[in-house]
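Support reply, case 0932

Customer input (verbatim):
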Amino acid sequence: MAPTLLRWISVAIVALLFAGDGAASHDYRDALQKSILFFEGQRSGRLPPDQRIRWRRDSALNDGASGGVDLTGGYYDAGDNVKFGFPMAFTATLLSWSIIDFGRNMGGELGNALRAVKWATDYLLKTTAHDGVIYVQVGDPSSDHSCWERPEDMDTLRTAYKIDAGNPGSDVAGETAAALAAASIVFRSRNPAYSALLLNRAIKVFEFADRHRGAYSASLSFAVCPFYCDVNGYQDELLWAAAWLHKASERREYREYIVQNEVILRAGDTINEFGWDNKHAGINVLLSKEVLMGRAEDLRSFQINADGFICSLLPGNSHPTQVQYSPGGLMFKAGGSNMQHVTSLSFLMLAYSNYLSHANHRVPCGGQTPATPSLLKTLARRQVDYILGDNPMGMSYMVGYGARYPRRIHHRGSSLPSVAAHPWRIGCKDGTRYYLSQNPNPNVLVGAVVGGPNCSDAFPDSRPFFQESEPTTYINAPLVGLLAYFSAHS
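Our regenerated output:
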């Protein structure tokens, strides 16, 4: 096919995808408030007096007690009652990055975003309080997933799982170090003592992760698989942690670590993957900022990878790892909970567009549709608008936003009567009738973004279809940054 014709087709596809952009007006500020509020519905432990989602109550107050440690607090990752450390740490990292890059756009919601980060990091400090040991999960997933009960009623095993020198977990330890380091930047001027504690702990945890290399699912497969099994390998988390420690501490040793280990740790792999298990695209975008500003020529390869990542996202470009789009214009990757890919990749697009703007740079994409900062912002906004209701179903995929949104989400606490409405205990199997019911959930988990529609833009709005109807913290975390930006630049 002639290059001119190919370029014309690429432009036409992009124009078609963006045709609806701006057609509907969304209240991004309202959506931002709701996206942060969601995290209060996911809280574990003793709830504070200012808890705003009132149908939730204290839960899991004895976590860690059987092992003589305090592991209360933190977040339930999704619609179940297990505290998985790997996705929780990633959630904290992305919430922190959202504040670092877009906190100035959050207005009155900044305080709530800071509290959302601290609820996670307070817990991560508990899990890393003892040298040589990191607690990476609380709750037996097999028993938990065989029950449908409120977190306030839990009677399933609350086993605390840990990694140590003999049973390493560089993946979850590396992500924990990244979360602590990123959060230390967030609190640097707001709470210097807390920031210093976070950074010092991040340094210790990273040293542990690097010294004792291995994937945590090798020794804990019976507990973490198939839920949060490390499929991608632990190497990217070591680079990811070093990148955040470099940014947080400004110590040259972390930059040297990145350069020396770039090839060994496969920095160029899967350039357009980013999520709780794969950090490659995030590493490349994060490190590219300094390159684009002319301060880190030794990191140039990461910027080249970031450019390739951006080109792979543009509809119609003939990139070898082209990201697919649904007929309605939603990014789509095979597997469950597609919205996690939509929000995380869109966040990176938006962050990179800002880095490009400040450097007065654009990505040529091999002579096809060039990636300008404005084009990237348009594409990211199109994904956000799809989530908020500009889609073939005419449905907002954020609970509580808009007139039509998912009513039967796969979430135990939301789908069962609250303690206030039903003060008597609901046992393990007693909740099954609520799970199978066609009635809407009695408790609205405001701000929850569900896994989303399938590749044909269809959505069942049914609890048993958990891949489509279950919300997760790591869907919402990058969305916070996106909504903050568009609330100030709409």
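We compared this against your earlier run and they match. Two observations from our side: Residues 16-488 form a domain with the Glycosyltransferase fold (CATH 1.50.10.10). The beta strands are 83-84, 133-138, 160-164, 324-325, 331-332. Please reopen the case if you see a mismatch on your end.
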